[in-house]
Model the fold of this input.
Amino acid sequence: MQPNVPLFPEQASSVAAHVDNFYLFLVLITTFFSLLIALLILFFIIKYRKTPERQAVQIHGSTLLEIVWTVIPLGISMVMFVWGAVLYYHLQRPPAGAMEIYAVGKQWMWKFQHPGGQREINALHVPTGRPIRVTLISQDVIHDLFVPAFRVKMDVLPNRYTYVWFTPTQVGTYHLFCSQYCGTNHSGMVGEVTVMKPQDYAEWLASGKAEGSLASQGEKLFQEFGCITCHRPDSGARGPNLQGLYGRPVRLTDNRVVIADDNYIRESILQPNAKIVNGFQPIMPTFQGVISEEGLIQITEYLKHLGEQESQPLNNRTTPTQLRDTEVPSIQQELEKQPGNKPAQQPGKKP
Amino acid sequence: MSTSQSTTTEHHPALVHQFDDMAQQREASTFGMWVFLLTEIMMFGAMFAAYLIYRIMYYPAFVAGSTSISVAWGFTNTLVLLGSSFTMAMAVWSAQKGIRKQQMVWLVLTMILGSVFLGVKAKEYYDKYDECHIPGHFIGKGFNAWGGCEVNNPKLGNIAEEIQARARNAQAKGYKDVVVPSDVAAEQTARQAEIFFSFYFALTGLHAFHMCIGLGLLTWLLIRAAHGQFGPQYYTPMELGGLYWHFVDIVWIFLFPLLYLISRHSGAH
Amino acid sequence: MSTAVITRKPVMPEKHYLNDNYGIRSWLLTKDHKRIAVLYLVSISFFFLIGGFYASMIRLQLLTPTAELFQPDTYNKLFTMHGVNMVFFFLIPSIPATIGNFLIPLMVGAKDLAFPKINLLSWYLYMAGGCFSLAALFSGGVDTGWTFYTPLSSGFVHTPVVILVFGVLLAGFSSIFTGLNFIVTVHRMRAPGLTWGRLPLFVWSNYAAALIMILGTPVVAITLSLMILERGFHIGIFDPKLGGDPVLFQHMFWFYSHPAVYIMILPGMGVISELVPCFSRKRVFGYTFVAFSSIAIAVFGFVVWAHHMFVAGISLYSALVFSLLSFAVAIPSAVKIFNWTATMYKGSVSLETPMLYALAFMGLFTIGGLTGLFLASLGLDVHIHDTYFVVAHFHYVMVGGMVTAYMGGLHFWWPKITGRMYPEGAAKLSALIVFIGFNLTFFPQFILGYLGMPRRYAAYPPEFQVFNVLSSAGASILAVGFILPAIYFLWSLKYGEVAGDNPWKATGLEWTTTSPPPTHNFHETPVVTTGPYHYGVDEEVPVVH
Done:
């Protein structure tokens, strides 16, 4: 093979080598069985070719053989299943403290926002050696963020956040594709991921033109839209206090407990009455079509910071949004019992 | 053209060439009808499944939407259809007996009841039209401010009011944690009722479409019955028409509670 | 008709279904399953040609990385129309509606299918659907992808989606009616003595496919109808802005469209189960296991749909369950491959064209099936999902598997259908060309996919060009391999050697009647006294009257 015709994409993330190993294992199994069948066929058509002297020997079958060639492939495929499932589990669970980046997909471009407020279009800069969680949302149709060098891919949905995470390991520039067909210019919805050494990345961040961090932009929106008039930290507020809310369990009027994660916050802004916090009136107007996806991300980022900055003790129950710290363990047990509930996601930290 | 080798039964005029005898023909046709009904079950089943998924997602809106359709008319229609199933069964019975007059009477009765059902359905549809509950953009007074309904669709108000009334009712019954939503909140919920109405029209529309096909089938059976084609030897078409009619009836027996009843209990939970 | 006439030079029967009646009416209003099969054969060949034309345009475009031939918009229409045409108007009806339609009554010893009129209706529905798909083409073409994913299809594209989907719905109902006919015929119209355990495996696998047709197709009909309502009236069912869930569409779509791939491949497997024993002169190895594996595939096929959605935002746990079940559905297919291979053991193997295709099927389907395991493996699917790896995988199954089986079956039963043999030399040559062309076309796509080239790209980064050029070169060879049979089949209609009743000395009721069969299939109702694949007693056919 010529060096410029590779058979594998570059391995530029921590999982790439694992995925490649698994792939090679499957290639090996496939080659083995394909060769087995091909060679058996070849052998049989030569050895048992039709001749006038020989008659075919009639064999009805063999239950033992049937069991053997049911059980062995089943066993091998279970190995594949477990191996693949372990990898997938790893790919689905971003480690705590991953660096956060936000991506908005639209026909036909990618818009990225770094927590510091730096924006990129069809390009993404990331440092090596740190897990990075990209929060994905689409403004229109379904897209899919795909970075072959990282071996990761995730659909970008129009109605809720999805996530993809990776730890870049190798400095370089890699392809970024949209791999869910999204209309006319689908093949133009591509970009580049630039992986940099951490200090280069820090320099790049500093050189970027940012109108303040995402959180501060979110704060601005928070005031602009008048959220602050109801969501105040005093006891007379009409809306729940949002300080320290992010990532915490919240009890609703119907006694359900949900985690205040990105999707919860997004829903609460767009469909405020879908989940009403216990002790509050459903009076909030909807902001559907008023705040852009980027704006929603900024507000979410602001709310994350609201928790961090103040870090006031949660057992000071200023509003019913927050539960006493002593309540939290029992609620978490309750959550674990509910199927389909993700455990609390850690709020991201600033890079 | 038939070259049937069958010698077991005399050659009935209704025996088609691919079957050996009337018994095989009848068995095959009946079996075919059941297989077809299986297909129909999957067709309605797919929509039931989608309906139930959204009902879980938007429960309050579905409750309010469900309350806004008339249970009285729905119940009337249930009785009408059950009655028509009875008359249809009688038509099959009289075909088996070979009584020409009776077959025709029962068939006509069935058709009348079927038409009554469709008439009531049309009335219900018109009420929905009048209340601006037609989902979508294009038909007359839709949810989304087309035709006679304004941008903020004041007629959505009755769903919103229903949502509030329900909460008040629940409070009165002692559910202390129930909150009566504000006007603005109730209207947000009411907007989600559009999906309920989408399913209401899709499901009942598909059902009504089946009823129309059924009426066509009955007309064809009526003509054949008038010609005295059915008797103890041969009544398969009548039997299959009956099977189809009963199936459409049973679909309604599922639709009626699903759309009109199960969300209607008092209390807000 | 227990005749052994092979020693004399065979002559055409005096009266058969082809010369029973002449004129356009006698064809367009026929209720004879054999004539309907021929109608289907002609019409699906036409749609295969059209689909193939789209495919060749796609491969031409991808010769260069920079979209020099077509605008992306045109390219998107090409692959959408290619997908829709090939899936709904070629692959799904291919074997069942042609070979199956022709053979199932013959194989079960019936005079016709249970409902000949419905059979004819199904052809008309198919043709109407096909006309709608052509109408969609002539009104500009559709660019949603054959999967019609919402909200793209329901709210964003401005092409005649409604026309195309209506065509697909009609084809769907045609498929339901074919399935219904098969099920009733197999249940109720078997010849005396033809127990379930004596049914040819071709019948078993078509029966399994028919089960999927009647149970799955209505679901996709409803799904697509809801999508059309959404598109026409914005009713909100799949529109996230109005509270709908676009991912629900994917669930409902794949609930049918995954089992649909088994509608495509099961009848192909049935063909292979006929060919391998015949050209090995041996009973099929493990009849019961091959028969029940078809049913197992049909059943398991219904519970694996979400493996198309591992990166669509479904929960971790449902991904695990669907991955596990997807591995389970691979096992019955493996069992079949092993049984066919074992059938050749100690046989008396000859390599006529149908057998060449059968062997090609076994090789290519093994690769196609095993690469399916790559996609069922969760961690790996994340990387290769929606890349050319998927494209290569399903073309290995659909073209390498299904089309190969279809070609094999067509060659095998051509003498039964027309009464004449095809030219063996040309046929062997074209089988070889298909095999080489196919592998050259699609093998490089596995590598492309792992490299990360996404599907449905009109233009691509230049480093992918080498493999794309290889693939396009292969496609041109493959095209030759498909055009050749069209020519020599037509040639053989007039100049082919007269075949005789049973040129392959095969077992099965279809070989006991004349070639071509009389309009009512058998001069006397056959009575079956032996099991299937009664090979080894070459001079006798297993039917005694």
Remarks:
- The interface with chain B takes residues 253-255, 271-273, 276, 278, 280-286 of chain A (CB under 8 Å).
- The longest strand of chain A covers residues 99-106.
- The two ends of chain A are 42 Å apart (CA to CA).
- Chain A has seven helices and twelve strands.
